[in-house]
Amino acid sequence: MPDSPLSASPYDVLGVPPTASQDELRRAFRRQMRVTHPDAGGSTAAFDAVQRAWSLIGDPQSRARYDGSAAADEQPQVWAPSAPRARQDTRASARSSGHPGGWYRQRYLDEVRAWIGLGDPIPDPYDPALVRRAPWEVRSLLAAAVAEEETARRLGTLGIGFTLWHDVAAGDGKIDHVVLGPTGLWAVQSADWGAPVTARRGDLVGDGIEPGARPVRETVLDARKLGRSAHVRFTAALIVVPDGHADGVEDIGEMRGVVTLLAERSRAVDLLRRGIPGVAIGGTDLFEVRSRLQAAIRFI
């Protein structure tokens, strides 16, 4: 699994700037080892992150590889758009339309050009060294695009009983994935805030979520806007985050008649197949909802 564009650099983990001397790096490493050690009240994950950071930049040779173009060996250029993967089985995939991640990728490319300087050449806007240096706001656009693309690949395995629309306009906002199948009509948002999130008071909180932001509420409101224009009603709103950024599947609660949930990416497809107890769409109802959505959906 590739690192997220929002993953902390080894310099961030050690708490030093990229210009730090080797002595400063060594002192920072020893300090962070003491602070994060589980026996001193730290977490295993933080302790492991410190050790990994040191393995990347702890000696001049490793640091030179990380800081230079050869750092791609550690973080392969997996963020660039790639051709669809060949299917490994003969099962029919879900019907799909739209371009997942396309809107965020275009914004990322625009912002990278503005950050580098208009007119200056950018040999590869997805070069890992370039991405690491970019401001958080720029990297977050690429992280959002990658999150959408990864979720879309998973959703494609739902099977022929499901229909998918990606990057759907909903008033002034957008819904990353609209999923229709026997388990209902779902508004699915793919997110990567660069850190774990959890449900609290009907929405999500986490280190990567701006104070006051309400991503669940925004998703529900966007779903209702699309629902009104298509004369359909959404069953649920699902926020999908990278594995390790949520505790499996969490029931956030019901908001304005829409069930809201949070799920790790690897759990999302099973959740959509299994559905919510007592909620289903079938037969002529499913055909009617699909027809209405086909007529109303516009891609962003």
UniProtKB/TrEMBL annotation:
This is J domain-containing protein. Gene3D superfamilies: DnaJ domain. It comes from Schumannella luteola. Pfam families: DnaJ, NERD. It comes from the Bacteria. Residues 64-99 are annotated as: Disordered. Residues 9-70 form the J domain. The lineage of its organism: Bacteria, Bacillati, Actinomycetota, Actinomycetes, Micrococcales. PANTHER family: DNAJ DOMAIN (PROKARYOTIC HEAT SHOCK PROTEIN)-RELATED (PTHR44240), J DOMAIN-CONTAINING PROTEIN (PTHR44240:SF10).
